[in-house]
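Chain A, query sequence.
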Amino acid sequence: MKIMNLCVLVLLSALLAGCSTSPPPLMDDTTVNADEYLLGAGDTVNINVANQPDLTMRVVLDNSGTINYPYIGKLVLKGKTASQVDAEITQRLLKGYLERPMVTVNIAEFRKFYISGEIENPNGYAYEPGMTVEKAIALGGGFTDRADRKDLRLRKASTGELLNNVDVTHSVHPGDILIIGMGFF
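Chain A, predicted structure.
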């Protein structure tokens, strides 16, 4: 009798192990607060100083994240928000250059995000606020025939962390890499 109970227990354990499901897809908040967005390589930034055409410019940030700005010299933009850059330029122009500078800094174009794997057109694409995995897949031309539509991974540019099993509503940010896995059937 004990052997039979043990066999039933082993059989039930094996059956239940086969019924396990994959973890639920990772979801997050898709809202992007432009006030908190940190500038980085590849971003295009507009700097406008009212009534000062020599101080108004459009720049694309390189890997160093610095620019040489008229009158004030080296200016680090990488890792700062647009409002922080705005405040820094204003403060530095107040030191003997302009009496009341009216400075506006905004992001003209965000850096790219990337899609690789089983997508029709793997490439880098221009980020737009509100970008989700689903929108990114649409930009990339959709899944290939070999794609595993549930094997969606996202490498976060901000941390380098690889998120597995992300939901299509998960947000994508500039510099992120979306990886579409390959199915076998």
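The beta strands are 44-49, 57-60, 66-69, 73-76, 103-109, 112-117, 123-126, 147-155, 162-163, 177-182. Residues 113 and 173 are 7 Å apart (CA to CA).
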